[in-house]
Amino acid sequence: MTLLPPAPTRSSAKPVKPALVNAPEGADPGVVSWVASIAELTEPADIVWADGSAEEYQRLVDIMLEAGTIVPVPARPNSYLARSNPDDVARMESRTFICAEDSDDAGPTNNWRDPESMRQVLGGLFDGAMRGRTMYVIPFSMGPVGGPISKLGIEITDSPYVVASMHAMTRVGTAALKAMHGTRDWVPAVHSIGAPLAEGEQDVPWPFNSTRYISHFPETREIWSFGSAYGGNALLAKKCFALRIASVQARDEGWLAEHMLLLRMRHEDGRVMHLAGAFPSACGKTNLAMLQPTIPGWKVETLGDDIVWMRPGEDGRLWAINPENGFFGVAPGTSEKTNATAMAMMSHDTMFTNVALTADGDVWWEGMTKEAPEGLTDWQGRPYDPANGPAAHPNARFTVRAEQAPSIAPDWEEAVPLDAIIFGGRRPTQVPLVMQARDWEHGVYIGSTVSSQQTAAAEGTVGDIRRDPFAMLPFCGYNMGDYFSHWIDMGHRLGRHAPKIFSVNWFRRDEDGGFMWPGFGENARVLEWIAGRVAGTAEGVDTAIGVMPATGALNLEGLELDQETLDELFEVRPKAWLSELVDVEAFFGQFGHSLPTGLVRQLNHVRWRLEHM
Ligand code: GDP
Ligand code: PGA
Ligand code: MN
């Protein structure tokens, strides 16, 4: 029976010679002996320490071209298309585990496994898992190396695709490794595609294993991921560390790790607002972060599109950073019309995954243009035939460095003080275009009751509505009831400095199934009202479920939207909402005594108001 090696310690009892694992000079002995223990377990053919350089990226590209993992995209300089195996295209929530000592600490919404038995299962799987392959050691920093809100980690992987993607998504290399010297304050993360190569065996373009484990050990801050090379399952710095493990660190250390975009909206008259927004995967974070306002005077600067770490500052305000270094965005639906910023950003140095290829060597996906061009090759490398489904996989992705976004804020690596937080999901009915929470506790209630239609970003039935509190359902590393309490406590700590909280919904549908709200750049109108609420200049009307724009307070100038649609976007139907509350109550019920009483109070208050409308 093979057990996983124990979590790394600050200094190992038995120091290992750095030369044995090819370690760079000056690497911390605790790091070196941990890497040695992983090498002993997984038995790779060789070991490479990533330095994050452009030369290294080119070497990885050459390896992947040779293996057929990627093909060039000639129309865009230094850009490539990776075609994954069709069985490895999205996050797998059913195979994602929180291995806390006590199942109560994982809570009712996570898959819990006993750490001891998981270490046995993984020990068996990782035993010899890297035979015949190169093991890459990737030291990285989330947030600028040494920054006040930053954290360090090391990912070990046997996938060159993962290393190349980590180059774009995190700060990889020597500076991060140096910062780990003399400390155990870094997160160890091990990933294997689980496809060892026998002597002389021919490799496949996208090796993987259909047995999957995306496992987190919150107490020892470890991540072990087996079987999949898809972003959310394999780029362990992202969802696994920066959300699941970091949310536990944040609980223990008094800060917040959230599934949010981060932007600055600036008016030419000098008004500035910093806003963070939590939407479930594939519900509009990247698009909002890169929004080009349709209303005059305003500009949006991108700070982040997926993850935000926030800490109360000495001035009592909540300060936020985007800990990532790049964007891993949904390709389908992205076009010159919906997100010209993203289109410009992807014109060079981009890794595409599972998009279609045109006859003249460019990429294509559904929604980029109205009609599919002639002579497409679909995401599986076949001549495009609509009978086989879409040309690009619905969860096809692009991976680029943040600095490539024309809208990136010049100071995007620095922390910003938050003015507003928004929550949203895909709700075809019921949830209004925008409303403000009455206070922080009501805002936490709104966050805790976010619900959304499932998207292609994870396995499951696309379109089914589920509760996805704070868009963190798949990403909270501990008991969600305790997470709600942590948010309520944060409000007490911030007091009058707390950001204002809002709910938005861009996804209301009419009877014909069309979107009622034009969305994208027009969402700036909603942000303008939010900025006005923060500044105390925009008018609102208190309703049973929250504060909505007063008549005329939402800037609709130049927008073709009939009165009927507008009314519908803000209509509160007591009966429908009361039955929604039945669902909320059932959802809350599963948390038992860990549900903060404040949320019950809020639920009862909303119900009382609806009953008395
Ligand atoms: P993320 O995964 O949360 O970052 O979501 P994205 O910003 O990548 O968007 C996911 C999908 O939703 C894409 O197909 C977008 O085109 C679409 N989308 C984003 N914003 C809007 C919007 O305001 N209205 C509509 N109708 N669709 C949107
Ligand atoms: P996102 O998630 O859709 O929130 O960008 C990426 C992922 O699925 O890992
Ligand atoms: Mn995104």
From TrEMBL:
GTP binds at residues 282-287, 397, 426, 520-523. It is an enzyme of class 4 (lyase). Residues 255-607 form the Phosphoenolpyruvate carboxykinase C-terminal P-loop domain. Pfam families: PEPCK_GTP (PF00821), PEPCK_N (PF17297). Monomer. Catalyzes the conversion of oxaloacetate (OAA) to phosphoenolpyruvate (PEP), the rate-limiting step in the metabolic pathway that produces glucose from lactate and other precursors derived from the citric acid cycle. Keywords: Cytoplasm, Decarboxylase, Gluconeogenesis, GTP-binding, Lyase, Manganese, Metal-binding, Nucleotide-binding. It catalyses: oxaloacetate + GTP = phosphoenolpyruvate + GDP + CO2. Binds 1 Mn(2+) ion per subunit. This is Phosphoenolpyruvate carboxykinase [GTP]. Its main location: cytoplasm. Mn(2+) binds at residues 239, 259, 306. Residues 1-23 are annotated as: Disordered. PANTHER family: PHOSPHOENOLPYRUVATE CARBOXYKINASE, PHOSPHOENOLPYRUVATE CARBOXYKINASE [GTP]-RELATED. Pathway: Carbohydrate biosynthesis; gluconeogenesis. The active site is at 283. Substrate binds at residues 91, 230-232, 281, 395-397. Residues 34-251 form the Phosphoenolpyruvate carboxykinase GTP-utilising N-terminal domain. Belongs to the phosphoenolpyruvate carboxykinase [GTP] family. The lineage of its organism: Bacteria, Bacillati, Actinomycetota, Actinomycetes, Micrococcales. Its cofactor is Mn(2+). One of its GO terms (cellular component) is cytosol. GO terms for molecular function: GTP binding; manganese ion binding; phosphoenolpyruvate carboxykinase (GTP) activity. One of its GO terms (biological process) is gluconeogenesis. Its EC number is 4.1.1.32. The keyword GTP-binding applies. It is found in: Cytoplasm.
